[in-house]
């Protein structure tokens, strides 16, 4: 069993019109976890709670097996967050932001900062607040990476980022994960990022974790199956996520168990088609 970098138990936060949690989740070393969910499902709120930008109403956060409060300085040093960290200082030019923030981190790497600033064509003289949305995302990303974090928390890091920079960010994340003691939690709406980067996928809906999957299990178990006939029992079966009458077909999340279900119902399977990640996530979010 790999070590746990992060463990969350019963984490919850109530707003007037929205409740996040209670959430239980864990992040193993060497794993990229994709955090997926519709707009407003609670992804950013979860990051805010993890980063202590907001106080939880209940729950516990553990990092490397120790409570956050006992481990606060390590947490700050070892977590790279690309989200809302720089917003409070947005009146500063980027080079001043660097002067302010780099002393927070004993392992701050100036060479890497300079390298990444050039790679992403960041004008260090420009004030953060004046930068375009995509440029802000790139700056957030650079600041998250430059202090040798063990865990990256990335809140939609490529939203609004140009195609070339997006490709570079993907390359940089793959390089980051070459060290198998590191982990990433990546909130994203981008299927390519899920396919190319993520090992595990957590699906949030209305503040709750509705599914938590290993990506390979999704590929193995989700399929559309055309069948000879559709019975009422099959329509109601818990492993049938969706069905259509003409021609008779079902979508299942348990290909491994479907054969015995069909046999019991005396139904013949005519054709099987594995689903794409995009189709699976749409079914999970729409039919859960
Ligand atoms: N400070 C706050 N006060 C009241 N409600 C809030 C506050 N912060 C967030 N919310 C509510 O919490 C819900 C979840 O918002 P959140 O930003 O976490 O969603 P998200 O999954 O990150 O969405 P998106 O994919 O659009 O970025 C929303 O309904 C939002 O209005």
Automatic annotation (TrEMBL):
The keyword Secreted does not apply. Pfam families: ABC_tran. Residues 1-231 form the ABC transporter domain. It comes from the Bacteria. Keywords: ATP-binding, Nucleotide-binding, Transport. The keyword Zinc does not apply. Gene3D superfamilies: P-loop containing nucleotide triphosphate hydrolases. SMART domains: AAA. One of its GO terms (molecular function) is ATP binding. This is ABC-2 type transport system ATP-binding protein. It comes from Salinibacillus kushneri.
